[in-house]
Amino acid sequence: MTERIWGILTEGFGKILLASIQVTIPLTIIGISLAMIIAMIMAMIQYAKIPILSQIARLYIWIFRGTPLLVQLFLAYYGLPKVGIVMDAFPCAIMVFALNEGAYCSETMRSAFEAVPPGQLEAGYCVGMSYFQIMWHVVIPQALRTAFPPLSNSLISMLKDTSLVAEITVADMFMAAQKIVGRTYEPMWLYAEVALVYLMFSTILTLLQRRVEKRLSKYTMKNAAVQEALPGEAAR
Amino acid sequence: MSMLQIRNLNKSYGNVKVLKDISLSVEKGDVAAILGPSGSGKTTLLRCMNFLEKADSGSMVFDGTEYDLGHIKKNQIAQIRKKTAFVFQNYNLFANKTALGNVTLGLTSARKMPKEEAREKGLVLLDKVGLKDLAGSFPVQLSGGQQQRVAIARALATDPEIIYFDEPTSALDPELIGEVLEVMKALAKEGMTMLVVTHEMNFAEHVSNKIIFMSDGIILEENSSREFFEHPREERTREFIRRIRRDS
Predict the structure, then answer these.
(1) CB–CB of B94 and A227 under 8 A?
(2) Domain at A3-114+127-219, CATH homologous superfamily
């Protein structure tokens, strides 16, 4: 490897990391958080079979799962200004990612809610709990456990999909790499470098996923070696 | 006056009438067994009585208050459920809660009992069903019999006036049935009012004091347990008893 390439890669690494801190990471975190809020609301509406709202939820999911993310980005950033809705590129990207990812996560959450045996709801009613108390203490915790692996998948694909925002002028990691390629004509090295940084982030997420899954699985493990300490007992 | 009365309860699924003009009464301290062939509407009756299914018409008198089952309101259901408890065939324990958590959740969430108080009560109840040592186990780590005993402790937690049991031993392996029946027997001895849908003839004959025999959606015979087994009034009942005597 020549000294020139080494220099380009060093500069590239700094700029890519800076762009990740300024764009990719916040976009991913805010995007998935908003997506989860949307998903919880949509899934609860459908789980509770609320008329009209359920249909609206299904329509939303149908549209956002049925059209390409890149097209949605273009439509929101280049199309909407024609009808008077003008947004900065970054908030526009956040909105599109939240809505797009929200549609996928809605389906994940809905199926996870439905996987909780309905008998547990009945049992909750019989001990005097209200619908929302049962949801909060029984259904949602179990649904989140079930949904966690597919949601982690969604998060990892979303992290990678953020590279599309370069197309609507948001200066993310990928755009940082593109800019240097434009100046140096070293696409091979720089795109490989940016790919490696994405890989690094996905690896971190994968490792996190494994850890959290292990913690969440305490009530699904049949032969847990150590019994859960009684609540309060640990403090003594 | 009876503690609980049902009058003219009707329930259909589509065109199929599953419960026809059911009337019955339960006195305080009764252990009433609901018997009958499968498909006779026993479980549906029990579920209607705790509003897990909605009856089409009929009335219920509970503790001197009359309720219209066809037009029951949410707050009336809540009022009645405060005094009742239900034990399911499949236990229906909360999978994400420990045995203790299962017993206390209704207390801490629905009744706003302080956590420490609920915990102490929960441990007393788990001790009562012989499971204090397993208070920290999750349902998946317990056998069917243990799960059903936790479910009984959970039912007891809210100090019900009556407990409904829906075939509490039917999902259990034969060797686990005994431990659950023992707990139920102990409750009966303490004077707990119980309404039990069951196929356990031994329990019906020796623990319950009253039999409600159902067939095809009607109550064919309501009788004291001794009379029912020794001098059944109805031909269908005699046939039923002959059959189970032959089987066992």
Answers:
(1) no
(2) MetI-like (1.10.3720.10)
